[in-house]
Amino acid sequence: ATVCMPKAAHCPTCPINTECKAYTLLKRKAISAIPNIIPPVAEKCQPKVQTVAVCVTRCVGRSGAGAAEPSFLLLKRPAEGLLAGLWEFPAVQMTPLTDGDETRGSPAAPDHESNRRALGSLLNSLGLGPTSTAKARMPYAGVYLHKFSHIHMTLHAYSICLETALGTQGLKAETEDPEARPRKWVTESELQDAAVATQMRNVFTLVQPKTGRIGVSTLKN
């Protein structure tokens, strides 16, 4: 690091200059300078492409049950890895389709049937009862493209409304499975202060009737 520097290589004092091909070429006058030759520029890795189906899950009390405002389900991400420890809406990583180019901002068309089936299975595993995968019960809100430095993530946003007699009071906040991810129900105002990942906040905006829109939004993290 102090000898073979990109713009000021100290070749004569380098202890391994006899093994250096670039220095040999310089001595033979085959090249005029070394800095343009070494160190080699590392090839830039292409970002990974991920496709994620997300369901903004809302719970309301039946008419007259006294529910002040709807609550939204959040699940906590694992303690390690991407976005460790942050909260998110129920989401499932899907197999990317091949008719789009997420690296250029052109997401593939969603497989709604597979996405709804996977999300329905996730909700059932959380003990939320049978959930219909029909379009009327889990409408599609749009797609959001989020760019990390090493991952281009396409999020397909859906929503579902669960109606119970007592709102979230009729649902268990936790599961008895010790390996299950922590979860909680929050109001929209509580959601604003929660440790929620940026792309999930944008998915939430996408599904809102007043502010959401069907289209592509891009944010580079």
Automatic annotation (TrEMBL):
Keywords: 4Fe-4S, DNA damage, DNA repair, Glycosidase, Hydrolase, Iron, Iron-sulfur, Metal-binding. The keyword Heme does not apply. Binds 1 [4Fe-4S] cluster. This is Adenine DNA glycosylase. Residues 96-115 are annotated as: Disordered. Its cofactor is [4Fe-4S] cluster. Pfam families: NUDIX_4. Adenine glycosylase active on G-A mispairs. GO terms for biological process: base-excision repair; mismatch repair. It is an enzyme of class 3 (hydrolase). Its EC number is 3.2.2.31. GO terms for cellular component: nucleus. SUPFAM superfamilies: Nudix (SSF55811). Belongs to the Nth/MutY family. The keyword Nucleotidyltransferase does not apply. GO terms for molecular function: 4 iron, 4 sulfur cluster binding; 8-oxo-7,8-dihydroguanine DNA N-glycosylase activity; adenine/guanine mispair binding; metal ion binding; oxidized purine DNA binding; purine-specific mismatch base pair DNA N-glycosylase activity. Residues 71-204 form the Adenine DNA glycosylase C-terminal domain. It catalyses: Hydrolyzes free adenine bases from 7,8-dihydro-8-oxoguanine:adenine mismatched double-stranded DNA, leaving an apurinic site.
